[in-house]
Design goal:
There is one protein chain. The chain has 98 residues and is an alpha+beta fold. It has a domain of 51 residues. The chain is 21% helix and 22% strand. It has two helices and four strands. It has a two-stranded antiparallel ribbon with strand order 1-2. Strands 3-4 form a two-stranded antiparallel ribbon. The radius of gyration is 20 Å and the shape is elongated. The protein binds zinc ion. The site of zinc ion has 8 residues, from helix 2.
């Protein structure tokens, strides 16, 4: 019987087994949206400045593609984990704990 592999944990799944197809699409944000104060934060400007200063003289800045998409097969267990934390973010550090 044909199998496919979970793209996260690597587990082999039978073709008749429940599996999930995850489609990811990332697009360049619409420039026409209203800007907010965070768009002008020092961190963003500093990151751009460091990037430009690190380029060899005369070399153009790298340009991200306008969009990217990918398709992944997930086993049920990995799908549940993904739904709980889709960006794989670590829990924020609680400043009250030091
Ligand atoms: Zn998995």
């Amino acid at each position: 019987m044909l199998t496919c592999q979970c793209d996260l944990c690597g587990r082999q799944m039978e073709r008749d087994e429940s599996r999930y197809e995850m489609r990811v699409e990332v697009r360049l944000a619409n420039k026409d949206r209203a800007l907010v104060a965070d768009d002008f934060s020092a961190d963003n400007l500093g990151a751009v400045s460091r990037l430009l200063r690190g380029l060899p003289h005369g070399e153009p800045a790298p340009v991200e593609p306008a969009g990217h998409h990918a398709v992944f097969d997930l086993c049920p267990s990995c799908c549940r984990r993904w739904r709980r934390n889709p960006l794989g973010a670590r829990p924020a550090i609680d400043p009250r704990r030091g």
